[in-house]
Amino acid sequence: QRSVLFLLDEKGKSLKEVAHKSIPSFPYRIPSKALSWKAIKEKKPVMNKNATRKPRITISQNLEKSWAMTVAIPMIGRDRIMGTLVVSRISSVSFPEEHMHILSLLADQIAIALEKNQLLDQLKLAHSNLQRSSEELEERVRQKTQEVRRIHERLLETEKLAGIGQLAAGIAHEIRNPLAIIATSAYYLGEIMPKDQKEVRKHLQILDSEINRCQAIITNLLEFSRKSDWDMQRIDINELLEMTLSLVGKDLVTRDILLIKKLSKVPPILTNLEKMKQVFLNLILNATQAMPNGGKLQIETSMAGKEVLKIMVSDTGEGISSEDSDQIFNPFFTTKPPGEGVGLGLSLVHSIIKSYQG
Predict the structure, then answer these.
(1) 174-205 pLDDT per residue, tens
(2) Which of 19, 161, 198, 300 could form a disulfide with 5 if both were Cys (CB 3.0 to 4.6 A apart)?
(3) Does residue 331 contact residue 344 with C-beta atoms inside 8 Å?
(4) CATH class held by domain 2-95
């Protein structure tokens, strides 16, 4: 005696062996005229008595003809037929009624177990999908929350900078006119002052130097408050760096600073010439001022990807403390002694670079 369990696929078009006893595995497709299909179609047990009563061990042909007596019992679940339970024996004597009853009960139990197993698999899959969706949703909410916070912080920063810019512009304009009068008066005094008045001339030179410093501060204030200039052109960034370095070359020598240039061949970029010149000049001046006793200033250009240009300005100065690192781009923040800076250089650099999404 032997038994085989066949499962029907979800589309109901093919039967697949999933378990067997007393016979080799049966990897072949079940023919449409096989007893199993008849049992599925009629939704009831079907018996087939082979008249030859000569069993054949080979199972490459119709299974039901390999044994003298075969019965196929449909495994009927709650919603659909799950497959068939096929039992065969060498004897041609029909299966007794009580055996058929037991086999039918067994087929029903198998169908229930299979349905439960499928439902359990579906439940596990649904739970897994739900958990994954929940995690994805949680991650999206987290990202959106962070994005909203960043936007809110940018808006606050923009409002703060706008207010500071307007205030700075107003103060700068108010100071510029009387400062121009002072500068003119100092120049006139220098012209009429006798040459032998060395002490007075020394103080006039100090006055002239401080006037120039004030004018530079006013220029930075006005530049900080001015709206972005979008006059764009393609420029060679290495040439612009060389031009900017020529403006501070004397200062580098005076401060005993060694200049190291590593300018790679990079494509021209679309930018505003004056804005980018301000960026480089502020970064270089900031680096040189960080090395009062000399040091090394390194400027490097390279490509960080197909469309990203990397420009690095580094120095051997003391650097920024961890307490100040979060504030260095804030307007009017400076670690320099009074009278040596107003803290707009890096803020201006940051503002310009952000406008280019850098």
Answers:
(1) 777 788 888 888 888 888 888 788 888 888 88
(2) 19
(3) yes
(4) alpha beta
